[in-house]
Amino acid sequence: MRLALLSLLVLLAGWSVPAAGQVTPASATSRQAPSLPFTVSSDPQALGALEARFGVQVIGLRLAAGGYMLDFRYKVVDPEKAKALVAKDLEPYLLDPQTGAKTVVPASPKFGSLKPMSGEPLIPGRNYFMMFANPGKRIVKGREVSVVIGDFRADRLVVN
Question: What pTM does this model have?
Fold first, then answer.
């Protein structure tokens, strides 16, 4: 558990840890771009409908923090429509239809919730993220899952 929290803090701070154990800013290390193209969803038409209704383009869902977290990314196209995704009273969750497992966005007393805040104005063209817990690494690469945020439901997202 401590390793997962440390990995999350390193990820959020934008730092990387080289083999020698010295911590350096991520900008000072060479990062390899993810291999593209990757599959975002096995149902691309549904993603187009989500963009029209909620004003966001789903970028992807990736394993993070050594597999203990899932990083959901989306781009805001229409800030007015996208406000529905950052409402404070909503509790986003990720659903694994194969097992019925439901994971949530964790919140810590020090950092708060790992999702965009409702008080901040959404900027068109900007990418946003939510981090979902993946305890026990139950959700693995290649699995199709659903992200649910109030009325927003992105089904058949492929974990990369």
Answer: 0.71
Q: Quick: pLDDT tens for 39-69.
A: 676 677 888 888 999 999 999 999 999 999 9
Report in angstroms the alpha-carbon separations of 34 from 6, 12, 150. 23, 18, 30
Measured CA to CA in angstroms, residue 1 lies from 12, 23, 54, 80 at distances of: 17, 20, 35, 38
In terms of CATH architecture, what is 2-15+38-158?
Sandwich (2.60)
121 phi, psi to nearest 5 deg = -70, 135
| Domain map (residue ranges) of the chain | 2-15+38-158
Q: Give the containing element (helix H, strand E) for 67.
A: none
Distance between CA atoms of residues 71 and 79, nearest Å? 21
- In 69-137, which ranges are continuous DSSP H helix? 79-82
Helix runs in 19-147, H state only: 44-54, 79-82
